[in-house]
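Sample intake sheet
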Amino acid sequence: MKKLKTVLLSALLVGALAACGSGESEETSAAGEEKSKITFGSTAGPYSDMVSNAIKPVLEEKGYEVEVVEFSDYVQPNIALNNGSIDANLFQHKIYMDNFAEENNMELSEVIVVPTAPMGIYSNKYDSLDEIEEGTQIAIPNDPTNAARAFLILEEEGLIKVDPDVNPLVISERDVIENPKNIVFQPIEAGQLPRAVDSVDLSAVPGNFALSANMDLLDALKLETMPDEYRNRVVVSTENLDQSFVEDIKEAVESSEFEEVIDSEFEGFGKPEWME
């Protein structure tokens, strides 16, 4: 009987130690578990295609499962990022990201800037901006950020001059100090600018709306020289910025495979400074 008690006690002790060891192993495994799936949000169109065709394959080579979620507006991708429904998104430039984060009390951070469809000046009337006449009408975006981009293109072409003391990211018509051809500016909603090509002399169309209207970026009389502030970027919640999956996304965008897809499928997209 004494021998039986000793055996039972030993068995219980071994079982207890095994249970403790098992619990410690599971906790360590959970804490050290690497993220295996990345849910990537983007607006439907070229940037969803960029994620699917240029970023996703490289991440899959790294062992990730990648799901691409498409959105139809510019609000939901950041809301989904903030509530954890997605891990990263690609659709916005820095100015929009910063303003949205401040207005909605979010912590958003950029990971890397990507090639972006530039704004262009399009016309069915003129073959060159050198041909424009006195009183030429140009449709421009009615939102301040994109309107500033239109004015910068016109200034770069020598058609207007803007106040050099004004922040170039917030230029408006009142900052135009020289307009020798008396160009008439017609602000309209940005999504309507592709249609305006048929009804006005010139139209300044942001790249995403041009592509959505099946316009060829290379048909523009002039494509903007885009500051990186206006280029789209991969964005994550700031709390995840140091996670390994974020570094892997960055490496995927920096890869030669990514650039090969951009060169073959995204003609006319302006590359960010780091790619030049």
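Comment: Residues 2-32 form the longest helix (31 residues). Residues 1-32 have pLDDT under 50 and may be disordered.
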